[in-house]
Amino acid sequence: MTLALHYALRSDVGLLRPGNEDSAYAGPRLLAIADGMGGHAAGEVASAVAISAIAPLDGQNLTESEAMLDALAGAVASARSTLHDLSVADPSVEGMGTTLTALLWAGAQVAVCHIGDSRAYLLRDGDLYQITRDHTLIQSLVDEGRLSPAAAANHPQRSLIIRALQSSTDADPDLGMHEALLGDRYLLCSDGLTDVVGDQEVHKTLSTVTDADAAVRQLIALANANGGPDNITCIVADVIDTDAEQVPSSRDPIFAGAASGGDIASLVRTARAAAAVGTGHASESDGPGVSQARHNGFHSASARGPTQHHDHDDDGEPRRRWPLVTSILLVLVLLIVGGLYVGYRVTQSEYYVASDGSQVIIYRGISQKIAWISLNSVYAKTGIPVAYVPADLSLPTTPTTLAKAKATVQVIDQLYTSCQQAQARLQQWEAKYGHQPAPAKSSKAKTKRPAPKIPPKPTIPLACPSQAGR
């Protein structure tokens, strides 16, 4: 028995997005999908770079699990390096990033590489399994037991990613091995599918639509029928036995989405133009240092040489030097001002949770001041009364990342919501049963009438302000 893949890949822009920031690749030994982030900051460039970096692994014929995992990690590191070089060479694409989910095959061995919130599913013996874990804030709250899976499915912040492939941070993908079996069906998809199509519908489609391409078409149609708010990319792959010759194995590599053009340089030019339109700045034309590469991205070099400086006045006479003491003082002032500015910029990468006396607020920066200079600003007002801050949580919190600050607010909001719901239940009970008259006696039967059944009076949790004495 010789295992192989029969696969289908399609990418759709959806109904609301102006362009496609997804990229994907399907080949005989490699399936990969990337969902670009950044909008005008070139999400399509990031996804295309990731796919271009990982696609060559399809032809390397790796057989050992350790070598397969090392190759995937190396491809991700190469993509991150390319993204960094691009953002340094062209600030208009700074901030771009992408998710990446890839499966690399060697017979029955499958190496899994995953970062972000694109997903890989396995349909085996009629059961559907998600074999990747979303790197999102909501998933982390579910893992910690702070949020139920049912509440997470429709949470408005379910797409807030806390780990991705970006130019500004080190890539840290999940890597692991998986064993494939004959008859398995795999699905790789961007969140344009899973955000609007539930697992039950995905399960039904994969179980009932036997043709891989037809299954991909139906999944995309379901996403568009539910609003199609994002780009939708799907790969469906069936594990087959080539000796049985029931279904032919797929041999042609397929690129889709932003990576299908195969020209990353043109994607950078498009992103630069979009950024110029969005900011009102004119963009420079591409120089000869921007080059195209098929697989590993590209590096750009500045076509400008060093600027020459002349220490002369317009009439050719040498300029007079400033006195030495004045020059030293100027340098010291510049160093102090520069140091203060750098320190200020560093503080603006941190966030903390505090209150303005009435509601909970997320601040950017730190709560301390230098002389009269404030080092913080309001990032978001939550509308949550400060009375609902748990007793074991002191404000302001220690400066941390934005994701952790939002997670702290999520904990406070859960208490606030539960208290509000409990208070509403108590008010409803009191309105209905609080003034219930005492049972009247019957003059004929000389017995009490049956008392009406009254449900127990709802209670307010002790953590709520009315019970905690706040």
Explain what the structure shows.
The chain has helices spanning 43-54, 65-89, 137-143, 149-153, 191-194, 199-208, 212-225, 264-279, 324-347, 402-433, 465-468; strands at residues 3-12, 22-26, 30-37, 97-98, 100-106, 109-115, 119-124, 127-130, 165-166, 174-179, 185-189, 232-241, 254-257, 351-355, 359-370, 373-385. It is of the alpha+beta class and 470 residues long. The protein folds into 2 domains: 3-275, PPM-type phosphatase domain (Phosphatase 2c, domain 1, 4-Layer Sandwich); 324-433 and 456-470, no CATH class. Strands 2, 3, 4, 5, 6, 9, 10 and 13 form an 8-stranded antiparallel beta sheet that branches. Helix 1 runs antiparallel to helix 2 and helix 1 (43-54) runs antiparallel to helix 8. It is flat and about 80 Å long. The model is unreliable at 278-322 (pLDDT under 50).
Topology summary:
Layout lengths: L2 E10 L9 E5 L3 E8 L5 H12 L10 H25 L7 E2 L1 E7 L2 E7 L3 E6 L2 E4 L6 H7 L5 H5 L11 E2 L7 E6 L5 E5 L1 H4 L4 H10 L3 H14 L6 E10 L12 E4 L6 H16 L44 H24 L3 E5 L3 E12 L2 E13 L16 H32 L31 H4 L2
Helix pairs in contact: 1-2, 1-8
